[in-house]
Amino acid sequence: MRLVLTVNGTTHELDAPPSASLLSVLRDDLGLTGTRFGCGSGQCGACYVIADGRAVASCLMPARQAADRDITTIEGLAKSETLHPVQAAFIAEDAMQCGYCTSGMIISAAALLARDAAPDEAAIRDALAGNLCRCGVYGRAIRAVRRAADPEGGRGEAPAMST
Amino acid sequence: MNLEERIRIEPDGSVTAFSGKIEFGQGIRTAFAQLVANELDVPVERVRVVLGDTAQVPFDFGTFGSNSVAQEAPALRLAAAFARRSLIGRAAARLGVPATRLDTRDGTIGDGDGKRVSYADLVREAPLAGAVPEDEPLLPPDRWRLIGRPLSRVEARDIVTGRARYTADVRVDGLARGAIARPPARGAHATRVDDGAARAMPGVITVVHDGDIVGVVAEREEQARAAADVLEIDWETPKHVPSETQVVPLREDAGTDAALASAALTRSATYTLPSIASASIGPSAAVVDVRPDGATVYAGTHRPFGLRDAVAGSVGLPKESVRVMPQMSSGTYGRSSAPDVSVEAAVLSKHARRPVLVQWSRAEEFAYSPSRPEAVLEVTAGLDASGQLVAWRYDEHTNVHTAAGPDPRVAAMTSGRNAVPPYVIPSAQVVLHVEPTPLRTANFRSLAAAENVFAIESFVDELAHASKQDPLAFRLRHVEDPRLRRVMERVAEVSGYGKKLPALRGHGFACTLYHGTYVAQVAEVEVASSGAVRVLRVWCVVDPGLVINPDGVRNQVEGGIQQSASWTLLEELRHKGGRVATTSWDTYPIATFRDAPESIAVLVEGDASAPSTGVGEPGAVPTSAAIANAVFAACGARVRDVPLTRERVRTAMAAGAS
Predict the structure, then answer these.
(1) 0.95 cut: is pTM over it?
(2) Nearest 5 degrees, angle CA B191-CA B195-CA B197?
(3) Which pLDDT value is given to residue A161?
(4) B310-322: per-residue pLDDT in tens?
(5) Class of domain B169-238+284-359
(6) Residues A97, A123: one domain?
(7) What is the CATH topology of the domain spanning B3-161?
(8) Which residues from A are below 8 Å from B359, CB to CB?
(9) Domain count, chain A
(10) CB contact under 8 A, B160 and A87
(11) Which of residues 49-68 of A touch B (CB under 8 A)?
């Protein structure tokens, strides 16, 4: 079926099977592979995108339902070379290991900070509770979200940025 | 070792380094870049590290055992040092200045009087090459700019922007998608495949039945899966023939039975750990392009050269014609030592004559991946009247811990890993029993060390309490190694181990020496009256020898502790008759953001005079015992069975109170 999708501010027209998920269209039709496949049932958070301001599992959303929403993927967070504060904070805290779950975590955190500029730790844990990480960077990711919310906040020495 | 196998100075003056090891998030690409940049005196951004590309890197057996830095750091440093000295030699000839008056700075070489030449200029006519002397002098520590400096990983910007390409993100021209029809039981053969309906479905390119592999290739993944679902297949399941139990003595001192019989105090206990899943967030994936004259394999793998040979064999190509190009990979913690998904993609590609991407579903990943074996650990020990250990008997019952299957030559170092305690014991018998299992098992983070150290460190804690000794003091009186003593004493100091805590809170201690890395941990837990355990804080002191990237070490050890806390409290792969029953995150939950401890404080205190050792696994090894010992300290419940579910803790609380 013919679909019109608005992703990261750009409108795309494409053909996809009626059963296609938003995730599959992002990855296979639009080449936006930064949104990862993890479980296909909305349980791990690897495929989160922002739809009308909320972090949602793109594996559960039929692509046709996404047609009338404003979709932001991990590729759309940075403004050209200027990283979103959450992205910069994840680098500063080295809040990643393999990085497979990182896109989803950053999407959840960006959606959180858009609705609550100064979340406490419990709010951060709740907002990211749907993002599973097997490497175990939860503590660093919490620190990164706090850093993004409060870049001037007092904290210990962070590693040098290597990028 | 020839320089050109390890280091290449590019025409633009940048540096390329080569290693057969694989990055799964351990941070080795960053550590290798730091080492090479340090030795060659260039900014780290100028170093590109090629990992595991079989067409470019020297042979490597595999990325196992937290061995990457231990094995590769010396080789890469030597090669880089030789490259630097070779460049200085060329600069001397070019500038007409004796080499002794020249020095490197930021990718250039000069004499201090204004004569200067860049690395790029020095390799323009001929690349560097030659045998690297084994005694090549290294840059002295007072010249180091990067070793010992915290650095966030070199892939970080690509990861946070989504530009990072993992295996399932590879998009080569003509890429098709594959899906596999799974047999009802492991080892079953398809005797008849009726593919009429499948072939008529939209997007289907071909249906493949080749050996034990039955699958569909289609233009889109949804189409491949839909068609695979309608295949009608008759399966024949051969009778399962269990492997024989291997009995491997690991330590056989004389007089253990007699010493146990005459000990002033003896104790026995049995500990159990279940099968657990590697539970990678990214399910297994491979893109394989099989052509008549060769194949290209894009995959995450612990063994690029082993995978090359396996793929070559599966499609009947000479191994030299197959190139494995490892991609960024979701952490798989050992699971990707099996070639399975790449072989499936190769066979489908061969028949479809298209490059094929196969990515397993979440259910396939749980049900068909190899898992960590279960273990039953039986231990008896005797103390003399002064409370000193005099005898130790330990029987480890477990399964094969590698993807390669039973192999008596490696059983002791794999299934028997860390079964011999790091304590001074006059007489000990340690015996490994590698028993059959209907499950597919393979390498998993630290192999059997996590199981053995859970049993040993729990039991040492029990012995201390039974003989009315402080658990740390009891350990220390049996430890001679000064580096182990130091991490133990330091973690006690920073955690306040032994101080009074509120009711139902406790501190637990555990330590290990794993492949040369010293680790000691204290966990603080809170136990609810329901039996639910919450890990509040963990302190860890780690000594991995000379530290290349202190924050990289911290990150690995924190992650190991977090993952191990998840194993300890939550994880059990349930199965029956060889079939895995827990095939979703609902039935196989792992720790979430809500479960993460308030803090995991890792102090990296490496002995800089000792060689660098690995940190990918050791942080995970003592955590289960530290948590179980903390639960005992908190509420008197001794739980010897992992996971420490609330039912088990509640039952043990009742037993402890009576």
Answers:
(1) yes
(2) 145
(3) 53
(4) 999 999 999 999 9
(5) alpha beta
(6) yes
(7) Aldehyde Oxidoreductase; domain 4 (3.30.365)
(8) 37
(9) 2
(10) yes
(11) none
